[in-house]
Every structure is written in structure tokens, then in C-alpha cells.
Amino acid sequence: MGQALWFASRATGLVTLPLLTLSVVLGVIGAARFATPRWPRFTLAALHRNVALLTLLFLVVHVASAVIDPYAKIGWLDTVLPFVSVYQPFWLGLGAIAMDLVLATALTSMARSRITPRTWRAVHWAGYACWPVAVVHGLGIGGADSSLSWVIALNVLCAIAVLAALLWRLRRQPHPDLTARRSATVGGR
């Protein structure tokens, strides 16, 4: 296999970043209850879910190719337990944290009808931490690839997209049903 697994791991990691970014952006926009007649909320929610699943698929290939590649001697446990790997423990540990957050978000989303909305929301809020941790993981473990101009540009564009979505959401007026629900919660205690 030679370097094929190494290239597969790097490539899928670099594809996972914009997919994760798009998933975060869609989640932020969807949480603000964005909708238009041509772009209803259910469409946005379906797109968010499908992009998140595609992100998870690329993440699994990224991790599997890194583990199967004999060069770094990364074990399966290293991918979920942070900072225990013999290969670049800090940077790989950040990747393990990001993976754990992605898995927790995916699992709670699949179990959403069986858990409380508060639990689901808390895990999804924790999932926001996944994105910056994943970016730092990629920059730190990427080696010489991290200094390539197109990789830097990819990271910058992803950061701009997430920051723009967050700023848009912070500046947006709350949706009327969200305001009503918050009032009911505060008044009902």
C-alpha cells in the first residue's frame, strides 16, 4: 500500500474540514430558525443532517486509514481516548476529542426522540467545540501540509464561514416561537 493510506488519511481529513464547517454553518442557521418560502426549515434541517452524515463518513475513513497505516502506529483506542497515543499525543488527542464530540452529537441526534430536549441541546452545544478543536488538530498534526498555501486558504475560508454564521445569528432577532417558549419556561418555574 505504501503511501496510499497516508494520502487517504490526509485527503479525507482535508475534505472533512469543509464538510464539518458546512454542517456547523447549517446548524447555526437552522438554530436561528431561518426560513424562506423557497427554503423552508425542514429543507435546511434535512440538508444539515445529510451533510453531518457525510462528514461522519469522511471522518470514519480519515480515522480508519490513519489507524490501518502502519507508519504512525495509531491504535483504535487512540482515536477516542485523548492524549494516550505514542504518535504526536497532543495533536492526535485533540483529534480524539473532536471525534468524541462528533460521535456524541451524532448518537444523541439519532436518539433524539428518546432523550430530553435539554440533553440533546446540551450535547449539541458541546458539539460546537468540535469545530475549533478539529481545526487545531489538523493544523498541528498536518506537518508540512499545514503550511501549503491552499491548506491555509481552506482553513481561513472555513473560519470565515463559521464566524460569519455565528455573527449573523448573534445579530438576528429571535424567532417569535423561540421568544414565546423562553417566556413560558421562565414564567412556568
Describe this structure in words.
The chain is an all-alpha fold. It has one domain. Helix content is 72%, strand content 0%. The protein has helices at residues 4-31, 41-68, 89-110, 117-127, 130-141, 149-171, 176-187.
Estimate percent helicity: over 70%
Task: Output the radius of gyration.
Answer: 18 Å
Number of helices: 7
Order of helices and strands: HHHHHHH
Q: In terms of quaternary structure, what is this?
A: single chain
SSE-based structural type: mainly alpha
Beta strand %: under 5%
* Total strands: 0
Report the sheet with the most strands, covering strand number, pairing sense and barrel closure.
Answer: none
Q: Mean pLDDT score, rounded?
A: 90
Low-confidence stretches: none
Overall geometry: globular
* End-to-end separation: 62 Å
What number of domains? 1
Topology of this structure?
Layout: H1 4-31, H2 41-68, H3 89-110, H4 117-127, H5 130-141, H6 149-171, H7 176-187
Helix pairs in contact: 1-2, 1-5, 1-6, 2-3, 3-4, 3-5
Write a brief caption for the model.
This protein is mainly α. 72% of the residues lie in helices and 0% in strands.
Describe the structure using short key phrases:
189 residues
